[in-house]
Amino acid sequence: MAPKKKEEPKAAAAPKPPEPERPKTPVFDPATVTLEFTPEQIEDFKDSFQLFDTTPTNEMKITYAQCGDLIRALGQNPTNTEIMNVLGKPKVEDMHTKMLDFDQFLPMHQHICKAKDCGTYEDFVEGLRVFDKEGNGTVMGAELRHVLATLGEKMREDEVDQLMQNQEDANGCINYEAFVKYIMAS
Amino acid sequence: MQKEFPVFSLLNSALNTISAALLIQRWYRQHVARLEMRRRCTWNIFQSIEYAGEQDQIKLYNYFGFLMDHFTPASSERNLISHIFRKNEICLDTEWERYFCYKSIEVTKSYTGPHLTFPVTFCGVSKLVEAFKHKEQLHARYVLQLLGETWRLLRTFPNISHVIACHTKPITICGDLHGHLEDLLLIFYKNGLPSSDKPYVFNGDFVDRGKNSLEILLTLFGFLLVYPNDVHLNRGNHEDHIVNLRYGFTKEVLGKYSVHGKKILKLLQMIFSWLPLATVIDNKVLIVHGGISDTTDLDKIARVDRQKYASALRPPKMKSDSYLESKTTETDLDEWKQVMDVLWSDPMPQNGCIPNEVRGGGCYWGPDVTEEVLRRNNLQLLIRSHECKQDGYEFCHNRRVITIFSASNYYEVGSNRGAFIRMGPDLVPHFIQYQASTTCRELTLRQSVGWTERSALQALREQLFVHRSDLISAFQEFDPNNKGMISVTHWASTTERVLNLGLPWRVLRPQLVSSTQRGMMDYQQWIKELSITEPKLEISDNSILDTMYKNHSNLETIFRIIDTDHSGLISFKEFHQTWELLRSHLKTEISAKAIADLAQSIDFNKDGSIDINEFLEAFRLVDISAHN
């Protein structure tokens, strides 16, 4: 992946709490997106798309709910809000029933790829340093759990458990540089 | 980063915290999505290899059917296999009783395994389960006696069992077990043994693949005999003696019971055909092993003569010479389809009903068919098994269909959990999941994905190796100047064309191909790097070797069919006939001399007969990278 620019601290104001959207968010229009992928990349995406296609006749369609997972599996890490945005803010009940095909998927993926930078190893470490009260390279597991479950795009308890599995030491602390390396190594 | 004004500093700190949280959450979600992608890939590999094997088997069997239908006096092949098509010979039950008589089999003082008294009691069967837990083996006399009692009992059962749900006795429903005794023991541990207070439904596929299929059967039959009104067994597509030849059950029985194995297998063949086809709870919940089709008719299923379908893989031809023959054949075909659909079908997300070409039998049915069949039969829920699910169970078709699968670690340690259902009179299913084996509890999600993935890739490399000559010729079509290089795009499309597994080759490429240069790869080198070694045998003819590897399972099936007395040995003549059968099925050229040479070289003890197991072992592929 090409190195991304460091995120400006002020840009942190953009993430909204997961409550009703503000009206000034622009509606996503796939027609405005120019595709810049190479043919090789498109072939790779097609293969991955097919992996998520569960129709036995291989219609090359996936559900709306799978779209976010696919974009992430291809290496991007958008927020849930960004995903709902490119999907055109569908209703919750539509997520598992509405389908999209590969041609509809491409502009969504392209938009996410072009969108604001997703953060590097340094960004991540910087982010975690916020919780490093003693400045010694570790954060309290319990505090991190609390934050992840209550702030931002909240994670469920089982998701937090999975994330933190085997990461805390005997004192309940996490060495965050090692933690970041671990997360980024998948 | 310290601001001068305390208000700003507070706000900034809060924003930093949120932004940090968001960053971690985004990364976490990406991490999970990528793991999910790998897991899906791995799953695809295992499943497509598994289903390709099933399809292969059915093709072979259809070929046999073709031979049988095109009888000519000179066709020796037909005689070779005709005995497998002979229906349960029209013998009187008394004649069978004599054949299966256990009374002459003596239990000597040197026998240290469990004893069984008849009629069986709860105590007796629980002790049997304990013995199996300690890896003891039940004496052949008791096996035959137990199976004989089971056979007699099953003949009194209707095709469809009806159960009433009751407050004090929730019903437990289990899916495929496939010889995984540890999973059955885990279920009993978590849920209790079957009894009149604890009714159970076991939804088929008790045997094949796992190592303890027989112990599972003996356990289930034992409880069935003690509580015939509270233990319900549905037949699965693996309760079929032809399928068993390929997938390990036959081998397991013959390995454990060298003297009486053949009788045990014959008795089991009859028991399987007498297993009920469905269970219905409160006239509202239908439980069948595979599923349904748009023509599924419970009244018809209730009326069929189910024991006619000893192996569901082919419609039985009626030996009638009257003018009624064509009529009975039609009804036969209709009934056969009803049975096949119930044992082999899979659900699909879209509406409609199409033949299940992947498995080779039954249908793919859609949510509209579910609605219609449930409505027509006044039902509200369909519970089926037949497909492995990562979490042990899965809903589909607007939660009107449940797949329940009880064999954990089915593809590999850590590949999936098993589950069972508990259901009370409200008919709301409650799921209990589990995973056998102590090692996988300690694995993180990523570790268990990695482990399973390694195993899947190994299986895939074997498949690639086995098809290497076809692959190389196909690659060469895109390499007219013989440079040994091919583009990644051509590699992916060609590999799919040759292997026909429906796999995402481009996604798999980084794990199968070590290096590419500017979108090109060296295919000859790649084949070498698959690092599968062939056993060292003095075989001059390479084409036989290739055929051998590609048709390993087919050969095994044919051998075991030909070995009518289940001795594990076949003569040179029979060996030759096997290859003849295979050759005509595959329509390839294999010279008689090559076969004769092969026979000589594998007659390891030079006694003029070939040990099937030794032969198959000698040709087992070894993945040397697996030893790293």
Overview of this protein structure:
The complex is a heterodimer of chains A (186) and B (628). With 186 residues, chain A is mainly alpha-helical. Chain A has two domains: 35-114, EF-hand (Recoverin, domain 1), CATH 1.10.238.10; 121-185, Orthogonal Bundle (Recoverin, domain 1), CATH 1.10.238.10. Chain A has eight helices and four strands, in the order H-E-H-H-E-H-H-E-H-H-E-H. Chain A has a two-stranded antiparallel ribbon. In chain A, helix 5 runs antiparallel to helix 8 and helix 6 (141-150) packs antiparallel against helix 7. Chain A is elongated. Chain B is α/β, with parallel strands linked by helices and 628 residues long. Classes of the chains: A mainly alpha (186), B alpha/beta (628). The interface between A and B is large, with 57 and 47 residues.
Q: Which blocks of ≥5 consecutive residues of chain A have pLDDT under 50? A: 1-14
Identify the CATH architecture of the largest domain in chain A: Orthogonal Bundle
Rg of chain B, please? 27 Å
The CATH H-level superfamily of the largest domain in chain A is EF-hand
Strand segment tally of chain A: 4
CATH class of one domain in chain B: Alpha Beta
Please state the overall shape of chain B, judged from the principal axes of the Cα atoms.
globular
